[in-house]
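Researcher: Quick test of sequence recovery. Tokens follow.
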């Protein structure tokens, strides 16, 4: 059974590009358009990894991660932030919230897939 990754990003084109790269690498993919939508997908389904943007409408990525980590089923689900945000205080806030890796956009699919392979859980 393939591992499932949740992509949370308000950019439709980025979600599609990322989903193609991940599916080509053998992962199943779910998509959410912002943090609120992402939380609605955390309904007991098993995700082996979450990839989230930081700057989104309705609920930003760091608030989303904090909320996700409060849910017992997702406390240990690794999170990669995929963002244009390089502010050290944001990166630290992400780490404090439970983010495991911080990848800057525009991303290189091989580098991102390498990070995914290192962090994805069984």
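Model:
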């Amino acid at each position: 059974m393939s591992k499932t990754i949740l992509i949370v990003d308000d950019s439709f084109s980025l979600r599609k590009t990322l989903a193609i790269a991940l599916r080509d690498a053998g992962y199943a993919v779910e998509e959410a358009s912002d943090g609120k939508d992402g939380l609605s997908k955390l309904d007991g389904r098993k995700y082996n990894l979450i990839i989230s943007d930081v700057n989104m409408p309705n609920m930003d990525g760091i608030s989303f991660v904090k909320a996700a980590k409060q849910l017992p089923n997702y406390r240990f689900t690794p999170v990669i932030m995929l963002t244009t945000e390089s502010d050290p205080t944001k990166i630290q806030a992400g780490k404090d919230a439970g983010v495991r890796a911080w990848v800057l956009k525009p991303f290189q699919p091989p580098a991102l897939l390498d990070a995914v392979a290192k962090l994805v859980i069984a």
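The mean pLDDT is 96.
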